[in-house]
Amino acid sequence: MLLKTFGWSFAVTALGLVAAAFYGGWTAFGIVAILAVLEISLSFDNAVVNAGILKKMNAFWQKIFLTVGVLIAVFGMRLVFPVVIVAISAKMGPIEAVDLAFNNKDRYQQLVTDAHPAIAAFGGMFLLMIFLDFIFEDRDIHWLRWIERPLAKLGKVDMLSVCISLIVLLITSFTFATHAHQHGGVHVDKAQTVLIAGIAGLITYMVVGGLSGYFEDRLEEEEEHEHEEEEAAARTGKKRSAVALAGQAAFFMFLYLEVLDASFSFDGVIGAFAITNDIVLMALGLGIGAMYVRSLTVYLVRQGTLDDYVYLEHGAHYAIGALAIILMVTIQYEINEVITGLVGVVLIAWSFWSSVRRNRALAAAGESPDEKAEVSSGV
C-alpha cells in the first residue's frame, strides 16, 4: 500500500537528486533536498484539505489528480508560474523571461520579489475564503467549540465571508498605500495592484468553488434518487446523464483542487528564493515536495484517516486561515518561512492529538466514532 501510493514520489526523488548532482554537484544536491523538505513542511495542511475534497472523487479522478495534476503542480506552478510572473510584472516576452531566469538570476529574483504583493494578495484572499466558508458552516463535529459554535450561527448571514474578506483586503491595501506614501510614494501603485489582485483571488474562488459546489450538490441529489428510479433510468437513459453529471462534478472539483494547490504553493515558491535563485534547482526541489504532498493526499483518502481523526480537517483549515493572514502581512513585512511552516505543523499536530483523545474517550465509553458525533476535545 505504502509503495503503491508513494512509489512515484520515491522515483521522482531519486531522479531529481541525481539530476541535481549532475547539474551542480553536491551543493546542488543539498539545495534540492532542503527545498523538498521546505515544500513538504509548508504544504502538509494542503494535503489534509485536498484529501477532504479528493475522497469525494472516484478512483479515475484520483489517478488524474496524481498524473495530470502533478504535471500542472510541478511544471506549472514550480517552473512556469515564476517565469510568467516575471514576464507580466516586467512587461517582457516569455522567451526573454526564460533567458533572464537562466542567465541573470539576481535580476530574475528581484522581479519575482517585486511581484510578491500581487501574488500574496491573490493567494491570501483565495485561502481566506476557504477558511471563512469552513468556519462559518454549521457542522455536527466541532473542534474548538467555544469559537466554532458562535461563528456557525453568524454564518447564517448571507455573504458574510465575502464581506469579511473584502474588509480585510481594503484594510491591507490602504495600509500598504499609507506605508508606501510614508516612504516617498515609490510604491504607491502597488496598493492598487494589491486591491486588483485580491479581488481577482476572490472572484476565482467564487467561480471555481461555486461551480464545483453546484455540480457536487447536483450529484448528491442525483444519487439520492438513483435507487428509487433505477428501472426508469435504464429505460430513459437517465443513468447516462448521471454519469455525465458525475464527470462535471469531478472536473470542477479537480479544477478547484488545482487552484487551491496554486494558492498553497505561493509561499513555497517565494520562500525558495531565500535558499536559491536558480530556477532549475527550485523546480527540482519544489517538484519533489509537490509529489509527496499529492501522494500523502491520496494516502489519507485511501486509509480513511480523515474519518478516523475527525479534527484533522479542522486543524488544516485553521492552518489555511493562518497562512492567508501571513500572506497578506508579507505584502508589507517579511516573515520567515520557518514560522509559516511551523504554524501549520503545530495546528495540525494539535488537531491530531485532539482526535486521538476523542477516539480514546469514545472507546472508554464503549462507543464507536460513528455512534457519537461529538465528544469534548478538551478545548
Explain this structure.
- With 379 residues, the chain is an all-alpha fold.
- The protein has one domain.
- It has 14 helices and no strands.
- Helix 1 packs across helix 10 and helix 2 packs antiparallel against helix 11.
- The longest helix has 53 residues.
- Pfam families: DUF475.
- This is DUF475 domain-containing protein.
- InterPro entries: DUF475.
- Keywords: Membrane, Transmembrane, Transmembrane helix.
Give structural attributes.
single chain, 379 residues, mainly alpha, 83% helix, disordered C terminus
Task: Provide a quick synopsis of the model.
This protein is mainly alpha-helical.
Spell out the blueprint of helices and strands.
Elements: H1 2-54, H2 59-89, H3 94-103, H4 105-114, H5 116-135, H6 145-154, H7 160-182, H8 188-226, H9 230-236, H10 238-272, H11 279-303, H12 305-308, H13 312-329, H14 337-364
Helix pairs in contact: 1-10, 1-11, 1-13, 1-14, 2-3, 2-4, 2-10, 2-11, 3-4, 5-7, 5-8, 5-10, 5-13, 7-8, 8-10, 13-14
- Give unreliable regions as ranges: 180-188, 239-245, 373-378
Number of continuous helical runs = 14
Largest sheet: none
Fraction in beta strands: under 5%
Helix percent reads over 70%
Rg is 22 Å
- Distance separating the two termini: 35 Å
Outline type: globular
> What's the number of structural domains?
1
Pairing-aware structural class of the strands and helices? mainly alpha
Mean pLDDT: 76
Please report the total strand number as a whole number: 0
How do the helices and strands follow one another from N- to C-terminus?
HHHHHHHHHHHHHH
